[in-house]
Amino acid sequence: MMRKIFIAYRKLIPGAMAMALLIGGSQQVCGTELVPATGEPQEFIDIAKDLRCPTCTGLSVLDSDAPFSLQIKNEVKDQLRQGRTEKEIMSFFTERYGPWILREPPKSGANLIAWLVPMVVLLAGPILLWLLVWRKRQTIPDYGVRNAEDIEAEFHRQVEAARQ
Question: Sorting pLDDT into bands at 50, 70 and 90, what band is 33?
């Protein structure tokens, strides 16, 4: 038993090593800054947190040190110095890069589906699954178990019918 487990895990090691190299390589390109830069205004942090890093996977502009993210951070700072609001800055980046640049899709239009489908699946999924299992359980015929006397009596009837 232990040998089978060891063999199964041994087959996973090359894939795990490749994954570690890929993740390590992406960290070289997209270095992460776990603590936001001190001295930055809260409004800058809020905006940079909501913008996606174009070169990193799953990181915000605030968390990334990729060159493209640094350009976006500088643009956000410049626009804040010009007195633009958060809404204006977000619409600027949305017009320039499309809604993809936002870390979460807007809750309007066709993007509303992206918000509603997971909630519907989470709420209705278990109920539908329960109904399917319950319905399946109702359709399974109950053959039951016969006692020995009934089996013996049927056997004798079949023997008598065969003799005649």
Answer: very low
Domain ranges for the chain: 2-109, 112-163
Q: Could you give the CA distance from residue 160 to residue 73 in angstroms, rounded to a whole number?
A: 95
Tell me the residue type at 70: L
pLDDT mean over 69-93: 92
The fourth-level CATH superfamily of domain 2-109 is Cytochrome C biogenesis protein (1.10.8.640)
Residue 116 parent element (H or E):
helix 112-139
Tell me what pLDDT residue 22 has: 55
CA atoms within 13 A on the CB side of 86: 12
In sequence order, which residues have a C-beta less than 8 Å from that of residue 84 and are 6 or more positions away? 92
Is the backbone of residue 83 left (phi > 0), alpha (psi -120 to 50) or beta?
Answer: left
C-beta separation of 105 from 115 below 8 A = yes
The pLDDT value given to residue 114: 78
Could you tell me if 33 and 63 are in contact, meaning their C-beta atoms sit under 8 angstroms apart? yes
Report pLDDT for 51. Answer: 92
Look up residue 82 and give its DSSP letter: T
